[in-house]
């Protein structure tokens, strides 16, 4: 794969990762407790390897002289943040960069790897990648060659011809009739698959490379050129093919869809997670609540001046619908996850944390913190045995992953602290490794 060789040529320096002893003891910190929606009394947390070994209000006795001790000074310890819908590659590039005929895999991956490091330094220790050529980046992060969050990869999006994942330029013709894959397919960004057999093959190709879940385009999109926002994409049999193949591997399908028709067809076919859904009605949301289907939702900003006129027009019903869907989904008891879904607008990445604050219209601070940690973690672990990181996530508990942030202040009272990671995140730890420590 071209991107894999490119990433091998461009590896972000990991010298910023501090020398790591086998154990870390964080003393005198107040823990965010999701069960009580409050902070605990001062506690001590012992980290061994990647996991939290012990939590105690009493002093923790140590037998290891090489334990690194950190005085938390009564600050707040929260789980690492989780974004349930990112595009690590697409989000780091503009559409012009992605589609440019002069772009090389090396030039593309340079921006992607740098963006990965910045995301971790904003406190996002885990993400679910919702489509794109992600496998080389994930492998490099897991091998400590690139700094970045844990990634639950979907691999190439699976789209019908003229669907949301059809990014062919006008001169690129159909692979089926003319025999040449599109450039986006060659880069591993998408599969254009029509019919049950092609969808099965595309799904299995992603699983072969290590996908933890499968991303299928089930409805129109705002960033794609050919499909109106209202169209339903893929027949029942085609979606069911992806679900059957994914379930045979013990995992699930997530679908891009906005409308009731697309979502209800997907649910009938066995899909477990709906991405977006800002145009859903009460009937469809009630079906989701009754069946325990996840709604992985975003709260997008208004159109910006640089956006092309077609995309602005396509986004109107999405922007209008999101203010209705969030509170209605909460009222009906739908399983809710939060994500950003930044796509081809890399300048938005710096605002990733501030987008969390936009949920304050409908949720308490405690509810929001739970959603962007524990709830999002529950969705990620829906991958079952295909999860690349099995174990407790999104909580501060013994035997959970030591993905931790020490916050200067109490985010239950002042959620804006979360939007100031450079100043207010004193420690950022992922898997027991300290990536930032301003107390040292």
From TrEMBL:
Domain of life: Bacteria
InterPro entries named among the record's database cross-references: Amidohydro-rel, Metal-dep_hydrolase_composite, Metal_Hydrolase, Metallo-dep_Hydrolase, OTAase-like
Domain Amidohydrolase-related: 76-421
Signal peptide, first to last residue: 1-19
Record's keyword terms, sorted: Hydrolase, Signal
Pfam family, one: Amidohydro_1
Keyword Protein biosynthesis among UniProt keywords: no
Any one GO MF annotation of this record: hydrolase activity, acting on carbon-nitrogen (but not peptide) bonds
SUPFAM superfamilies in UniProt: Composite domain of metallo-dependent hydrolases, Metallo-dependent hydrolases
PANTHER family: ALPHA-D-RIBOSE 1-METHYLPHOSPHONATE 5-TRIPHOSPHATE DIPHOSPHATASE
Name of the protein this chain belongs to: Amidohydrolase family protein
